[in-house]
Amino acid sequence: MEENNLNAAPAEIQPESATQETVSEATVEQVSATTQQPMEAEQNVEVTSETVTEQVATAESTPTAEQTTTPAATEQETTQTTSEQEREIRRGKRARLMQAFAEVKQAFQENKPIEVNVYSRVRGGLRVFYKEAPLFLPASHFHLKKSPTDEELLEVVGKNITVKVHEIQEYDEGSMAVIVSRKKLLEDELWDSFKVGQVVEGTVSSIATFGVFIDLGGVEGLIHVSRLAPYRIDNLKEHFKIGDTLKAVIVEVDKANKRIALSRKELVDTKKWPATEEKYGVGTRHTGLVRRMTDFGAFVELEPLVEGLLRTPEISWTRRLRRPSEMLKVGDKVEVVVIDFNAEKKTISLSMKRTQENPWPKLHEKYPINSVYEGKVLQVVPQGCVVSISPELDGFLPRSKMKKILRGNKIPLKQGDRLKVYIADIVPEEESLILGLAEEEEDTAPRSAPQNPKRNPNPKNYETKPLSSGMSIMDMLSDEEREKLMGSLKK
Asked: Residue 454, class by beta-carbon neighbours within 10 Å (0-12 exposed, 13-18 middle, 19+ buried)?
């Protein structure tokens, strides 16, 4: 029974300063000395320096098959001899045990590693020995990962491994419980192996809005969103998922703060254009994301490293857009069709409006000629105004259709003004809608006030011919000259 107790692991190691993780794993399985497998019938005991000394002494005092008894010895002599041998063995074992624990304690104080022998696999971890001293290695401190497999733990049984003393609990009666760890050693070795510029491989452990975390074998590195690719990636979860294996380059190592910065941009071949004419030939339809905006169009990403230009006139059939931002914004998902593909120049021209049927041939059915609408001025140019008559249709009101409201050369309208207009003409071939001012607008338009209200240059039965400037001869005479002229005509 004493031999069984010698092979038993501590039932529960609960040092006062131990962490919750250590305490929960300090309960261990009872393991057979010959098979290292759990034995349900064995009794749990506390592994301390005192109990192990007594167990070892009792075990060694038990006669083995190689030892022979003296047939002539009396029972009393045998008992006396055995007692003396036991006491001698116990004293020697206790001295060696105390020396071993003293060395363990010194290693703990100096933060130095020690080499131990793995004796057996027990519940919660491994039972190990430093010389005569029994120690406990929790499973959570065996590897950098929190939960090593049972196969990984059994693989080291009977082997020597290097550990560090994690915690020592001394009791009043002189006994001692020791917990060791190899996690810190493995972590230090791993951090020392990381070098800037080194290519590493790991699995995606988590995904955040600002980047992707990679497990590098127990240590996590971050690939910031700006370093994931040479192109912008907005929704990371559309491109990566937990468990993916990725390669990355180490760009920064901060051992003190346990941080590793990684990058994938250097591993993406930007020289090779992945677009092919088979996939992006003229007429093919695609869904893309608006990435950049310019005054002349929007750049749409069709796939990583493949962008096409959507020019402003190709955005809408019936809207007169000055710039794409009037209808699109960065991040919009759009349906487009390829209207030009150039593999040599690596350019693709796109159209958004051609994904729909051209409405111009039948536009007159929905917007008949001379039909009146309330419009909103979108833009004023020297030639006229762009006027929106519905959310889907813009037309052009030329100067020639607003003569009665003109003030010299200046158009008396501004952006945002509302006015009544009518459909004057539709030219499907030119995708052009010509508007005119409705009669109500012309009749109610303010007239120019006369330069001199008191002046009446046109008597009865007298007409003057306007000059090219719009002024008559009478307007050029003074009042005195005009009276003399009128008096001579009456005579």
From this structure: exposed
